[in-house]
């Protein structure tokens, strides 16, 4: 059983590392001086209505200061803008600027291509089963982490 658990750990670590490497290569190819965390931030701003810095800190599990610095850099590059929250003057909503949207769409397209290649020779049924098992494992991890 120990070998299976080690193989599982190695699979997840290598998969995450491989995805990061692919994204770094794509960003380098597109001459973007950003790291993969910026793509994650752009993606979450794109996908989340009324996205806030606090939401990004929670979803990325980064501290608010780090998210603030990332957002400032994205704002300095004219990729993200802050909009006032009409119901809470203490928070602001984040949105992609036209330049941010263009970068996001280019990176998302490249990301989809990598994911498509990653699942080559894997049937829809196998992928569905893998995702179901992965969701159970993630639920188990979340239960463990909430106990700590």
Structure explained in plain terms:
The chain is mainly alpha-helical and 148 residues long. The protein has one domain (2-122): Winged helix-like DNA-binding domain superfamily/Winged helix DNA-binding domain (Arc Repressor Mutant, subunit A, Orthogonal Bundle). Helix content is 72%, strand content 7%. It is built from six helices and two strands. The protein has helices at 2-29, 36-47, 53-60, 64-76, 98-118, 124-147, and strands spanning 80-84, 92-96. The chain has a two-stranded antiparallel sheet. α1 (2-29) packs across α5 and α2 crosses α5. The model has no long low-confidence stretch (mean pLDDT 90).
Estimate nothing, just give the exact number of structural domains. Answer: 1
Query: Roughly how many Å is the radius of gyration?
Result: 18 Å
Unreliable segments of 5+ consecutive residues: none
Q: What is the fold named in CATH at topology level?
A: Arc Repressor Mutant, subunit A
- Averaged pLDDT, please? 90
Distance between the termini: 25 Å
Strand order of the largest sheet: 1-2
User: Helical segment tally?
Assistant: 6
Q: What is the name of the CATH superfamily? A: Winged helix-like DNA-binding domain superfamily/Winged helix DNA-binding domain
Total E-strand runs: 2
> Given this structure, which CATH class is correct?
Mainly Alpha
DSSP helix fraction: over 70%
- CATH architecture, please? Orthogonal Bundle
Query: Based on CA inertia axes, which overall geometry fits?
Result: globular
Largest sheet properties: 2 strands, antiparallel
Order of helices and strands: HHHHEEHH
Strand coverage percent: 5-15%
**From the helix content, strand content and strand pairing, which structural class follows?**
mainly alpha
